[in-house]
Amino acid sequence: MANLYKIDDFARLHHWSHIIWDIDGTITEVDGEMSQEVAAKIINLGMLGVYQTFITGRDAKWIENKVIAKMVSFPNFPLVRDRLIFFAEVGCLMLGIDANGKVMKTVDPQIEEHPLKINKNGIRDELRKLVHDPAKLAKFKPHTPGEPPPNVIYDADGKGYEFDPKNMPSCYPYVWSIPKECFATLEKVRTKDGCVKAFDQTPYAERVSRTIKKKRFDKEADIEVLSTAINIVPRVNGRNLGKSWAAGKALYNIWENKSGKAVDLNQIISGTVAFGDSIADLDFTKPMFPANISRQVSQDSLEIIFVGGSHDLPKKGESRHELCKNIIIHATGQGDLAFNWQEDVIHLQPAKGGRVVSEVLDFLKHWDYFRRF
């Protein structure tokens, strides 16, 4: 069996009591579904007293359907639900589960009246005009044999829509993400299998930027170009509400709401490790706090276990490259071959994502690296 991960310096491993999880590509399978094996191990960590915060740019409904719904079926879920915190839209929305299994959603106070959320001056409407709008497209229905197949696009949730190739929006490779409440997201159009094309997104990002400036909104939001989307991100006090902000919020939440400030904030930072698979996830390692809290913090970085490929990391000289020093365990990317007897094919099982996470958790738990604060 291939070595799925590598530890560069064992001396940097220590005890952790809180995990910050990325979701997409980190604890999900190739088909986008959450790994049941990883879900079981997450529940077991909760039984050990480990807090876990899940942070994603996805919407709240996606987390509820794809993540929470997969966990509630475990018998011990009611015993650990208070130790599981879910952040949708990179922390703008926080989800929790009550004693009856009902999902509760709260909007971050900084975002509740943000111009991007409340559609001030119609900014969301203007952005929506740039891309395919599912609300104005017919839902895809299988065509009758003999008829010409329709032109179909798929969104990030796998829903298909028929479109007119003679009436294309200016940013035609994208579709509006209706479920987003705080962010505005232009998702790359998917294939039926959920795949996205790689292409230069610069011209489209520039169009979005011009729209934002035209509406005099550039001080309220910024653009974040991802491999699968263009995010229009709220700005508060001159700062983008990205994964650094979400990590700081997650740590503060554990300190204030979970430990009742009985545990020192620096101890919580030291006792936290992140898991991620993309360049953007490296931002978890530089948590952002309000100025009055920053003065109490002596440790300003987190360690991260990186389960993406080497091509997912920034190159030397690129932004975020210095954050690579915070990686303590990384996927090797070696993988191995699997033979499918039914289909008579051999395919590669890549050493990344949920498969690596499962192996790493086994190792860390075996050597007692997880414990309660």
Strand content: 15-25%
Q: Give a quick account of the main beta sheet: strands, pairing sense, barrel closure.
A: 9 strands, mixed
CATH class of the largest domain: Alpha Beta
CATH architectural type of the largest domain: 3-Layer(aba) Sandwich
Work out the radius of gyration: 21 Å
- Total of domains: 2
DSSP, total strands: 19
> What's the rounded overall pLDDT mean?
91
Spatial sequence of strands, sheet with the most strands? 1-17-16-15-2-3-4-5-6
Question: Which class best fits the helix and strand makeup?
Answer: alpha/beta
How far apart, in Å, are the first and last alpha carbons? 35 Å
The total count of helices amounts to: 10
Helicity range = 10-25%
Poorly predicted ranges (pLDDT <50, ≥5 residues)?
none
Shape type: globular
Oligomer: single chain
Helix/strand order:
EEHEHHEEEHHEEEEEHEEEHHEHEEEEH
The name of the CATH topology of the largest domain is: Rossmann fold
